Amino acid sequence: MPSLPTCRCLSCPAHGQVSTVPPRCGVYPSSTITDTQWLVLSVLLPPPGNTRGRGGRPEKHDRRRVLDAVFYLVRGGLAWRQLPAEFPPWPTVYGWFTRWRADSTWARIHDMLRDRVRARQGRNRAPSAAIIDSQSVKAADTVAQSSRGFDAGKKINGRKRHIAVDTGGLLLMVSVTAAGVQDRDGAHQLLALLREKFSTITHIWADGGYAGRLVIWAANVLNMMVEVVKRSDALQGFVVLHRRWVVERTFGWLLGYRRCVRDYERLPATHETITYIAMIMLMSRRLARNTPIP
């Protein structure tokens, strides 16, 4: 069982105070990075700015504590200003988050972790097949009217996550649109991004909402075969459908992170980043189970 860390943060307000009560140092079992998890993540982070030969001051706050704060926010679903005081100041944490979103650091960390998980499972790092689906989530009042819509089928006013996963349920690509965008229309952008990133994918499984012109377009333009897995009208009750259950399980994983249950982000790109971070938390803990501490 991986051990939780002892306090080593530089910004904890309890440090230096004389008290008989042990200080609260922000160790939360559902989000705090364990020692073995930090071994996995630390080597994937970009080097500090002052080590790149361009000068600058050393970083004031421990990166591990910054990641702890981001993970705590994604897991708990709270606002940036509501981060507990034992973490670094929220503007600092938010600044790291936005810089790493802008330069795609979060996406790169996610992709490297996914490749490691697939390699540990004895699978090729480059997938050859994927499953796609979408999920509508309600939007908070912080989401602009211009980037939200109404999903008439689900009766949801908000945004829609279009995701592609491998056959094990690991996230390959996510695209966020207004909830009013049809699945087929959102899949055009999703599959185009998927083809740009993975030249090895040739087979896609999808539900009946993707049937029609998308299948023809994907075959002729992207050289992808989209296989539609339909539910028979004769079936009653809950039935596990071939391949489609994999992406539904991934949606279940995401809903375990409360920041993904509802969309609070002003920009769709920010919600995409939050989705990647949720999967980073899941995969890093999965890898940490079999990573020995030196």
Q: What does this protein look like?
A:
With 294 residues, the protein is of the alpha/beta class. The chain has a domain at 124-233 and 240-264: Nucleotidyltransferase, domain 5. The chain contains 8 helices and 6 strands. It has helices at residues 35-42, 63-76, 90-102, 105-120, 183-197, 213-222, 244-254, 268-288, and strands spanning 129-138, 149-151, 156-165, 171-178, 203-206, 225-228. Strands 1, 2, 3, 4, 5 and 6 form a 6-stranded mixed β-sheet that branches. A hairpin with a 4-residue loop joins β2 (149-151) and β3. α1 crosses α8, α2 crosses α3 (90-102) and α4 (105-120) runs parallel beside α8. The longest helix has 21 residues, at 268-288. It is globular, with a radius of gyration of 21 Å.
Q: How would a crystallographer describe the biggest sheet?
A: 6 strands, mixed
What best-fitting shape do the alpha-carbon axes yield? globular
Percent helix range: 25-40%
CATH topology of the domain at 124-233 and 240-264: Nucleotidyltransferase, domain 5
What is the number of beta strands?
6
Provide the gyration radius in Å: 21 Å
Strand content: 5-15%
Instruction: Outline the low-pLDDT stretches.
Output: 17-23
Q: What structural class should be given to the helix and strand makeup?
A: alpha/beta
The top-level CATH class of the domain at 124-233 and 240-264 is Alpha Beta
Number of helical stretches of at least 4 residues: 8
Order of helices and strands: HHHHEEEEHEHEHH
CATH architecture assignment name of the domain at 124-233 and 240-264: 2-Layer Sandwich
State the distance separating the first and last CA atoms. 15 Å
**CATH homologous superfamily designation of the domain at 124-233 and 240-264:** Ribonuclease H-like superfamily/Ribonuclease H
Mean pLDDT: 87
